[in-house]
Amino acid sequence: MGNSDSKLNFRKAVIQLTTKTQPVEASEDVFWDQFWTDVNLTAQDMFALVPAAEIRAVREESPSNLATLCYKAVERLVLNADSGCVCERDRQTVLSCIRLLTRILPYIFEDPDWRGFFWSTVPKVGKTDESDDECTRPLAESLLTAISDLLFCPDFTVESHGRTSADGPSDIQSIDSCEFIWEAGVGFAQSPPLNHTHDSSRAELLKLLLTCFSEEMYQSPSDTHTPNPWVSFFCSRENRHALPLFTSLLNVVCAYDPVGYGIPYNHLMFSDQRGMLAELALQTLIVSLEQELVDHSNTSPNPSTNTDTLSPCISEMHVFCIRLLNNPLLQTYLPHSCKKIQFHQELLVLFWKLCDLNKVPPYHFIFYLFSYLTIIILILQFLSRVGLVHICVFILLLLSGERNFGVRLNKPYSVRVPMDISVFAGTHADLLIVVFHKIITSGHQRLQPLYDCLLTIIVNVSPYLKSLSMVAANKLLHLLEVFSSPWFLFCSPVNHHLVFFLLEVFNNIIQYQFDGNFNLVYGIIRKRNLFHQLANLPTDVSSIQKALQRKRRSNSTHNAVFMETNNPCNTACSEAPYKTTPVQTGTLNASLKAMPRIDKLTETSQVSEDGATLLLQQSDSTHSQSDHSSETRVRDTEPTSGEDEEVHQKRVSSSSDWAPTPDWVLSWKSKLPLQTIMRLLQVLVPQVEKICIDKGLTDESEILKFLQHGTLVGLLPVPHPILIRKYQANEGTALWFRTYMWGIIYLRKEDPPVWYDTDVKLFEIQRI
User: Fold this and answer.
1) Going by C-beta distance under 8 Å and a sequence separation of 6 or more, which residues neighbour residue 664?
2) Does 134 have pLDDT greater than 70?
3) Where along the chain is composition biased (Basic and acidic residues) (predicted)?
């Protein structure tokens, strides 16, 4: 009955606010207190009792009242944070303010006229004993400071450590939050007792914090180049809780165990409050780490204390990542008996950021990964089964820039995991190639922009691959067969780059790992006509037009090239980046931004004999083999800033102002790196033919034995330098990750739907 009265009274207050035509003064506390004092409503109640239409109506018709409501709610949060929420009534008031602001903020952010509202200077609330210059501050800073204080408020979000209600506000403000870190792990050895009430309060605060950060969702991609001011302040030294908050978020994520003791169906019998907190902590963490322009040393008032604390923990963090990433892929005898986490996409983003941001020893996160090839298997599983293609490709591209990654791929692949790929016996390198081949040949047409990334990864590791299996070798040669088709080469101004990448793979293996790669050498000999056809590719107008006739007879570029595969499950790899559940009618999806070309994604380094790398100028890279003159002619095919991937693909496919010419074909055909392969064929083909005739061989195993003991020492051209294309952060990928990250968070917040039906501009929401 009491809850019904609370809902009725709150609804009356909302109606009063929406119907008032005159501004309500901020001093009228009796009116404003109706929205949070003695209000006992859940977040779902709050969203139901404050309709979107009424928020917009107040924003348009009584903007001063909406501004005052926000100001008074923040003021109440600040006052209670200063007092320490010493009683249950204060805590309930804080929760009501949090839920009300979470409901209102998206509708303020969606209106450009309100964009600077929270960053306008207002009288400082709370204590006012500071100097006159400090008596005013932006409302956003007051809100973020209050949220941070409340996240370490004894008896509300953390254990009290013996505090009594008689303790004064000064004791609360002097709290050392490093002693109240939420979970054991980085920087904290003790594991506080689990308290569901505290977890629930933390979750409410983190939802509000994410809502504050989400202002950039309401800006067009062209306007998101500047740092997010909410995140900048939250991560700055002005927030005294920045370091303990970061470690609390990280530790909660790493310590979360969805399986527990492994009792079947335990997740159906018991609620999992910690799971919700872990998801929100992870989302807050990846958004905070997006702020790359912030001086990371500012997050600690005493940076010297970080080194000893973080160094041993970085080496262990990948273990937690592996454990959690493995959870969605677990196979159990009893269906649905084990809880599966839903935040694997956010986890992959965190994994990416840990790799990308920790590049300098002793925090070289990638260094510790190479002793655990399990993570590579997991990423390839996600790549082939779940549809998280883009993020997984980015991770593998980053890893492939490290020499040790290629070396470690030579380890035998003995653990068999469920994947819809060809059966083979070989190494992790073979697994990588087989999965990539599967994605290219049976994936979705929208994955075509990823082909050069996939091949670049193989190029980067190829100088270190000691022995490819016959299956992997045949997969590479099949890719060359389809990519070197005259029709495929002539139908796009950039398709010939794929041939250059594959030829570079073959050259690297022949020059640097010939001894153990007899399977690939045998495959090259068997498919030698491919290389002769490339060397003799026709360049006259008649031949070009004849080849293009095949395109006009086909409805799909992708399907026409890869007719080899006719798999009824061939959409398994198609990108559905934010899908959290199986596709159902009415499911929401968020659009992806177009991905930059590979030359925009990477910088080329030359590997010296001692293993050191030397960064090359762009003009020196091997990519120049594929004709820089053609690059200038196809700039209109590059994605513009903020362009959706689907829109970009349509624009490229419908472009009619480009056509292949004999001069264009000659410009890159003359640069095809065929010398090494042709020399290999010139030496080995006669030898193989002779031994077959002399011994009457019909079994390929005997030929493989011959090739296994063969040598080309002194017969091949001078080895070319090893070139590695390392991932290089750029504006295009930053926008892609920002869009991907916020798209995930947008769709994950369904109960309550924080951003649903608001005018988001960073991406498009599509109803499937």
Assistant:
1) 493, 630, 633
2) no
3) 625-638
